[in-house]
Amino acid sequence: MLGGNAGGLLVQEKQVAEVELVPDLAHPTDEWAGINPSPKEMGLVSFTLDKGVKTTVVGTVYGMDFDIEHEGYRVKAYFDHYNKRLKIVDYEAKDYRAMLLRMAWLADQNGFTKIFVKAVHEDFQQFLSHGYMMEGLIKYYFQGQDAYILSRFSSQKRVRSDSLIEEAKMVEKLVYNAPVRDPRTLPAEFRIVQAKEQDIPDLVVIYRQVFETYPSPLTNPDYIKASMERNVIYRLAYLGDRAVAAASAEMDLKHSNAEMTDCATIPEVQGKGLMQHLLMALEKDLVDYKVHSAYTLARAVSFGMNRVFFRLGYEFCGRLINNCDIFGQFEDMNIWVKRL
Asked: Domain of 89: which CATH number?
């Protein structure tokens, strides 16, 4: 989930103890910095888990994991409240009909207008035969085998994208007219480091400047800390002692892949090639972890971010329609994949 327009500009000191964020309540830099309730209604969220079984979660709720063990199938699902979708994270099935009926019921009961799954080659047609749409694939995802991205839509508004032709032309412009180039030399005044726990305030400052809304709580330092403990690597670019750009790699060590995501550069240093260097550093980190493939879901409207991945040798593999909410509305996401 990548790219982004700029919000306000914050100045911060390198010493963690001295970092102090003073919110501008009149012009908040992210959706939680203001004083008005969010249209997301995330403070008190009710989920329907089964017939007659409901739960209510209190707090800033983006989503919830839910494991289902049933005769004929097993599913690990993610109730993605923020993006109004149900993600099938992992599954085993003998009875596809029963499993997909259960997923459709859960999605409808919880107001989710999209179900999203990464299927293996052996059974992706099972999803097609039950009404799912093929949106693309992530090559090499399952220990070198391709993952097929299929979705079920239950809303005419969600399945329709008015910008598809423009997005397709942009990819054509890259593929046909923008040759893969060697990255520019990193300017001497910048340095790239792997972020540690003591660097979390710097990450928060960057993300609060760049993203007004985002489909994960990147502006929450506790979330970043937890993600670091769950196989997410962050890289930071510094201009002197000031953090100015960031990106991350979310590793799936079981399947030997990683999602390149959370890319953000503050506006005053954009255009200097920092993101390429951050991503190349992350790729080297992934090789050290024996991760064999990397992919990203880039905002389909962001020419700059798509160009970055194309120039790094990533291959375009499809487009996810209205997949996630960035900057207050659902956006299409382009799939880019690379074998490391």
From this structure: 3.40.630.30
307: in domain:
yes
User: Are residues 171 and 109 located together in one domain of the fold?
Assistant: no
- If you ran DSSP here, which 8-state letter would residue 17 be given? G
Tokens of 34: 């203001």
User: Is the same domain home to 184 and 231?
Assistant: yes
CA atoms within 13 A on the CB side of 212: 12
Separation of alpha carbons 300 and 183, rounded Å: 22
pLDDT digit string, tens, across residues 222-240: 999 999 999 999 999 999 9
Q: How far apart are CA 296 and CA 298, in angstroms?
A: 6
Mark whether 288 and 311 lie in a shared domain: yes
Domain annotation covers residue 94:
yes
Percent of the chain exceeding pLDDT 70 equals 89
The alpha carbon dihedral of 7, 161, 168, 139 has a sign of positive
**Domain count of the fold of the chain:** 2
147 and 171 assigned to the same domain = no
- Mark 206-237 as b/e (b = at least 16 C-beta within 10 Å): bbbbbbbbbbbbbbbeebbeebbeeebbbbbb
283 is written with which tokens? 């790729």
- Segment 137-159, tens digit of pLDDT: 999 999 999 999 999 999 999 99
* Distance of alpha carbon 270 from alpha carbon 245, whole angstroms: 9
Report the predicted TM-score, pTM, of the whole model to 2 decimal places. 0.87
